Hints:
- The chain is mainly α.
- Helix content is 67%, strand content 0%.
- It has helices at 21-42, 48-55, 59-65, 69-92, 97-116, 119-128, 136-154, 163-177, 183-196.
Amino acid sequence: MAAPDSPTPDRSAKAPGRPARADARRNRERLLAVARDTFAATDGKAALDAIAREAGVGIGTLYRHFPTREALVEAIYAAELDAVVTSAPALLSELPPEAALRAWMDRYAAFSAAKRGISDTLRAGWASGAIATPATRERITAAIAQILDAGARAGSLRADVGPDEVTMMLLGVFMSTTAVNSPELTGKLLDLVADALRPTTDGPPQD
């Protein structure tokens, strides 16, 4: 019997010489979405053939896009990181900076939660070199800097707090709530961080 993660012929593949790029993109996106949710629900222990079935494709299609489990995990991580980073300017185009910051924190929290299901494979892949080490912290901090700069110009966010400091606060929230796994508690702590970043309106002490 073939190993669960070993490639087998893909009966759903189209005939050679008839590429369907739109179908291929949709298959890849569907595989990433299903794998992200399945890994999150199973602590990263789902078999790849089960992911292919859930996505409605053959295992051969999965392996054409992602030759190894590490390649699939790396693609999930990259897609989620891209989504959270690029959401910063999109939110700023729709919301005032202070509201954009709080909405972006929720996006970042979702990214952090999605990463938990693939963390073991990520760490092993980074250690072995099978997965490239991404510039996650630098990109997250740059996204925060965009929002803080907009807020400082608008006067709705403090100008004396740097993006590195905000990154550290948010990482502290996510690390402290990992074991609890409570979205409500995470949201409450993020509210406190957001409040701390608003400029104070208190004047000097009165005699």
